[in-house]
Amino acid sequence: MPCRWKAVDGLVRALGALRAESFALEYDHAEPPVLEEAARTIGDAAQVTGATLDAPEDTERLMGACEAIVAARARLKSLRVTRTRPRDLMGPDPELRRRAARQLLEEIGGLAKSGQAQVILEPTRSGTSAACIVGVIEMPDRAAAYLEPYSRARRRKARGARALLWVGRRDQLVRFEAIVRACPLEGRRVLDVGCGPGDLLGFLRKRGILPAHYVGLEAQPWLVRAARRRRYPKCSIVEGDFVKDPATMAVGADVVIFSGSLNLLSSRQFYRSLREAWAATRRWLVFNFLCTPDLAGARWLHWHRRAAVLAFARRLGAVVHLDDGYEPGDCMAVLRRRR
Ligand SMILES: C[S@@+](CC[C@H](N)C(=O)[O-])C[C@H]1O[C@@H](n2cnc3c(N)ncnc32)[C@H](O)[C@@H]1O
């Protein structure tokens, strides 16, 4: 299994689905002993899953966590059926359970292996989206995979921040505020990678922060048109895809910024684009990323461990600062070249 973190991510999501199942029990007014048993079951599975975070390369641990999740699923299912007599419940046959766990491990590992696969999730009865994997389809075009959700939002006629896949304007603003706190933009040449309609520049101008020049790079033609319609001074909007064509980032910027535009990239592409952006910037590289599965519920979103991002940034030789205090589940990295 080449990408163990994918497997850990899969386990954490499966655990989230179990939690949703136990909330459903509460909702069904199950009796206190049943709820206690459900909490114990989830606690056991969480403990074993948590241990995989320390050693994602340890297959035995991964398998142990899969077994715990399979066992917890069965237990919760039985609890849902009885709701009143937890002591009467029989555990499933251990061999069957082991086979089911192996199957879960393969599903999670297979997901990571192809790199071009998309998992189809089926909602549970309790309504959560991170429920069970019911199939895997091949993605014909990698480019479509990281841009398609934006196209879908447009087809749904989403407006404003929602068209950019933010939950709301607040989510966009807290990130912009974190960026201006972390990095001096006044009088600098700024490249905003995945700029959408250029909201960041509008935000800066309102605050009286005027870059020497702003370049917005955007792949979606309708967002490029929207950004150009604003006719901001000292601003160029370039249509381009930084994944397919990293040279689009070589505009001589002092500061290269990604806000939200890395969230749909696989881990491999995430780090590759960051390396290319670091090569393109004269001094600063600022980006935000999802750092826990909490905000990465949709199947197209990817999260990354803070420690891994920090180690990566240090290997680039950068002076690094991480800020994860502005929004739970999101983190901003600020990299500066040494003089
Ligand atoms: C979450 S939105 C954020 C937009 C803006 N940075 C903001 O903070 O409001 C991400 C933007 O990045 C753009 N984007 C994603 N992948 C891209 C790529 N490979 N090349 C250029 N733009 C991309 C999307 O089209 C979208 O407009």
Tell me what the structure shows.
The chain is α/β, with parallel strands linked by helices and 339 residues long. The chain has 2 domains: 4-138, no CATH class; 148-336, 3-Layer(aba) Sandwich (Rossmann fold), CATH 3.40.50.150. Helices cover 49% and strands 15% of the residues. A 7-stranded mixed β-sheet has the order 5-4-3-6-7-9-8, sandwiched between helices. The two termini are 41 Å apart. The structure holds S-adenosylmethionine (SAM). S-adenosylmethionine (SAM) is lined by residues 146-147, 150, 164-165, 172, 194-196, 199-200, 217-220, 223, 241-243, 259-261. S-adenosylmethionine is lined by residues 146-147, 150, 164-165, 172, 194-196, 199-200, 217-220, 223, 241-243, 259-261.
